[in-house]
Amino acid sequence: MSTEAQQITKASRSNLALAFIALPRQRREDISVFYAFCRVVDDIADDPGRTREERQAGLEQWKRAVESPVESESSLAPPVREIIARYALNVEDFREIIAGVEMDLDGARYGTWEGLRLYCHRVASVVGLVSLGIFGAREPAARDYALNLGLALQLTNILRDVGQDFANGGRIYLPEEELARFGVSRADIAAGRRTDGFLALMDFQAERAREFYHEAMRRLPAADRKSLIAAEIMRAVYSRLLEKMAKDRWRVFDRRYSLHRLTKLWLVIRGVFFE
Q1: Which end of the chain is more exposed for a tag (fewer CB within 10 A), N or C?
Q2: Which CATH architecture fits 107-275?
C-alpha cells in the first residue's frame, strides 16, 4: 500500500477505516488505497485555498489519471491504477465518484430528493459498487445491496453534519422541497434552530435512511455474506449512529455525534465472529 494511502486512512479515524480491520491483508491494503482516492478527490473539491478553476482542473487531472499516467500526478495515482487492474474495476465508476464531488464545487443546493439522490448515488453508492470488487463479492444481488447501503450511509452522514456543512460554505444537503414542506428556512439552519418543523424534517429523513438500511439487509446475498463483513460492520455502525441521533432529538448544531469506542469495537467483533 502507498505511504500516502496509509497516512490518509490513519488520519481519517473514519468508521469506514475501522471496518477494514475485518479484511484479509491484501484486500485491506487495496480498499485503503481506494478510500484514500475518495478522500483526496473530495478534499480537492472542498479546498478553500484553491479557486474554483483550480479545483476543477485538479479533478479533471484525476479523471485522466485513473486510466493512465499524467504529468505531475499524485503519488496515489499509480496504486489506484494497480487496484483497478488487479480487480478489473470499472474506470467509469471512479469518474462517476469524481462527478459526484464536482457537484460540490458550486455549493450544495438540491431542489428535490431525486437531485440529492443522484449526489448520494455518486459519492456513496458507486463507492459501494467499486468496493464489491475489492471485497470479493460475486453475486449479482450484491449490487442492489451496495446501492441501497450507500444511500443509507450518505443520508446518515448528511443528518449528522447539518450544522457542520452549513458552517462550511452555507451548504445544505437537504431537499429544498422538503425544507419548505416542514417549514424549515435557511435562516433556521444558519441560526441552529431546532424547531418542531426541523425535528419533524430530520425524523422524515431518518425514516428514509432506515428504509434503505432495511432494503440493503434484504438484498444481502447469503453467498457473499463473508465477503461483505466490512460493509456489514459499516451498516451496523452507521445505523446505530442514526438511532443515537434520533433518540437525542437531533442536536446536530452543537455536537458531533459518534459512537463510543467500545461500542464500535463490539460491532467489529460481532461482525467478524458472529455474523
Answers
A1: C
A2: Orthogonal Bundle (1.10)
